[in-house]
Amino acid sequence: MDLTPLWMGAKEEFAPEVRREMERYRYSYSTEDLALLGFDRVFILDSEGIWDVADLVEFVHAQLLELSYYDGVLTQELEAVPQVLRHRGLWGYGKLQRLRRRLMARHAEIADVRARMEGALRITEDLFYAKIYRAALELYGAHELERSLEEKLRVLEATYEMVTEEVVHLRSQAVEVGILALIAFEVVRALY
């Protein structure tokens, strides 16, 4: 049965490319069921009324929502970097440390989300559902979102690391100047 007109919501003749793309995300466990994933729609036909596929797709959407949230949070952190860089030096160290703590917390939260995503794939013991789960992650762009998060985390970590090194260097210079001032003071005091 050709589901393309129903799937596309039109009665025209569709190109083979459209049909191939539709077939790419078509899954059947038996002749009595069908799951058809699309970017903006899902078609599920199951004579037994089992909605596992719908639950699985909903779970993927929840994961995407979490990833999108953290992508936005990291974008805000990246936007704060220029302000941190303007306040470099000894007095900006506290602000940098607060940002670093937030980054570590975000890193842990994102690692937790990713671990749950990988764990969900392992929990799905059924190969049929695992294939649908992987396809939904691919179709909805979860992997691109994960790569975006990883890149933003790398940029933030590198920036904070460089600024921290600069602050440590400035502090060590201040200590050296203080030691030299004490030595000079002792020399002057010993002479007089």
TrEMBL record:
<protein>
    <recommendedName>
        <fullName>DUF155 domain-containing protein</fullName>
    </recommendedName>
</protein>
